[in-house]
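Recap quiz, item 2
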Amino acid sequence: MNAELIAVGSELLLGQIANTNAQFISEQLAQLGINVFYHTVVGDNKERLSSAIKIAESRSDMIIFTGGLGPTKDDLTKETISRELGRKLVVDQEALNSILSFFEKTGRVMTENNRKQALIIEGSTSLPNHHGMAPGMLIEIKNKTYILLPGPPNEMKPMFVNAAVPLLAKVQTNPLHSRVLRFFGIGESALETKLMDLIDTQSNPTIAPLAKESEVTIRLTATHEKKDMAKQLLDDIEEKISLRVGDYLYGYDEQSLPEVVFCLLKKHQKTMAFAESLTGGLASQLMTDIPGASEVFKGSIVSYTNEVKSEVLGVPTQILETYGAVSAECAKYMAKNSQSKCKATIGLSFTGVAGPDKSENKEVGTVFIGLADGQNVYSFPYQFSGTRSRIRLQSAKTGYDLVRRYFRQLSPFEK
Amino acid sequence: MNAELIAVGSELLLGQIANTNAQFISEQLAQLGINVFYHTVVGDNKERLSSAIKIAESRSDMIIFTGGLGPTKDDLTKETISRELGRKLVVDQEALNSILSFFEKTGRVMTENNRKQALIIEGSTSLPNHHGMAPGMLIEIKNKTYILLPGPPNEMKPMFVNAAVPLLAKVQTNPLHSRVLRFFGIGESALETKLMDLIDTQSNPTIAPLAKESEVTIRLTATHEKKDMAKQLLDDIEEKISLRVGDYLYGYDEQSLPEVVFCLLKKHQKTMAFAESLTGGLASQLMTDIPGASEVFKGSIVSYTNEVKSEVLGVPTQILETYGAVSAECAKYMAKNSQSKCKATIGLSFTGVAGPDKSENKEVGTVFIGLADGQNVYSFPYQFSGTRSRIRLQSAKTGYDLVRRYFRQLSPFEK
């Protein structure tokens, strides 16, 4: 079974938004073992949409449309498909009721074009929309499956996962099972070199490395009709990989480094505080993005000037004068004082040169990260490269990885 | 002239990344007045790529490819196109020299497949790659233009802007000139209502509103062969719009609210500090993302617990006990003390409930923002909605907008 995604919307062709719907659906289909061979984007234009449908029908078993189900004149996806399929549009009473009740509840006056949103293609299964008004639909005609989904991602995603996936899962006999391993602190080519023989002889599961922003992931994909057997295949290959590069393996699937550290802190009943110079609030922001962060995160002092470093954070001016703010010594004081002032168990500090210009005559990318745990104070030097954003992000992530290594007693914290 | 974009790469069809290259190129082409009618994504597969090329040739004047120019076996874009066009691949000596010198400089051994990257289609103009090894190319055959670009965005974007756009701009006779107006604090429908008659009678320039994350933009697009006449058309319509909703207009094109505030602070020779609770470092991070932020930004105290609020930031415990941390009174102290402790001219504070759970028995989305300028201390209440991320971002942006309004003496700071 192979699928094609057709996104309908001129805003995509004008570059106002990226086609993130295609990414989401593709990832979901990969997990179901449905091959996606093409993505197409076409504007709000009947003729070009019709022609895209004909091309897709000639090469794909399943066509999934996103966008163009709304109330305005621009929204012409279902009208065009219904004409191509020679099927009428009929009222979906449930959808109409929910539209009517929305307008009743909000006290707004319903304009006539909203009624249009309740129309579905005759013979299709309606996919309810719990986050908007237009329902989706799924219809099978002559061995082809057509799925229509709304364009706004917050409506499309839950509809696809909750209403479309269960219908599709039934069709598949040999589904794929994927697991993503996430690595930090090792480059893609170094990782590939260490796993070369495994990659060269891969069959089931497949092993697909991918370089992401300052990280590398490996997607393992096993094919098996039984879920527990697929899990066993994934466990086996993961164990082989772990034996070689397990120190760098920080998490799975969609986990982020801050989430992993959040869980470690919770597990060990520890708390954390930051002192941030070059990262300027980024490390804190990554932590506080996590719901429940206040359980483990006390606060931070963003000391962007030497004045704030000495007067708010209490770094001795002598240290700043002798070694400069970008120094191992300053990083140590920053870590120690953030820990004690915020009454956390662990203090983590970041000082360095994010660029674009040198600072204190130190090169762009020079970074020191400090870690204090109430007993010991550590400081580690780094030399990062790339843009300002990249250096900041790389610094913040490296700090999080240090905390992970601290709890796992990995280098440089071996016991 | 109409264009089609073909992205080549199985990672796109697996949903590992989104096709942001298509968004970037589409936006650039829109500015050049080149219509984009289709985006296609196809995997690393010769037959399917060949068929996508044939379809594109049947309907588009210009085909722009991204991806598949690298050294590995997967990279087959230029080989496939050269076969479709019946043209040989030849060595681009300049590209080869730069590849050789890269390996010489880094002391790494060049594998033979790297030499492949220096091949270009015979008769094409090579587009130099200053951020990677594989050059791009542009070739015109039988009134069709083919452009090949590398896949990594950090290589593709500068190549497209610096090498491809100048070649394309020559071709266009009646180019489009765009200007994006950026609004904060007004919803899309309210904005449309105020501009309804202008939108209904638009012709040249066109007026296209778009809701972005907690902002609205209006893209004005004028067609004129003369640049200064197009500019006049844009100025005239912008003036009409400004008369009605100018208070909400904070910037242009790619400007962000923090950038606008950064410029205002520099212009007025003022400095800023933050005290962040629910935003947890986000406001600071947005400011320090700007190169040169240290000119205007002193630092901030991320006080995620009441302990840090009282002991580091100096909010009286009596205030915390009487009114709670999520209160106008606390926001005022936070703003005042961040300003004085960090020795800034303006202190801005954020306290509230980001969710997912209530706090201090206050609803999710309850937010207070404080502003202190050394003389006056203000505090403003808000009720935001949506996810945790959205509430945090909306809070940070609203704070920046308050500072903008403060300098511009707009409501609530009218003199």
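Chain A touches chain B through 73 residues (CB under 8 Å).
The mean pLDDT of chain A is 92.
End of item.
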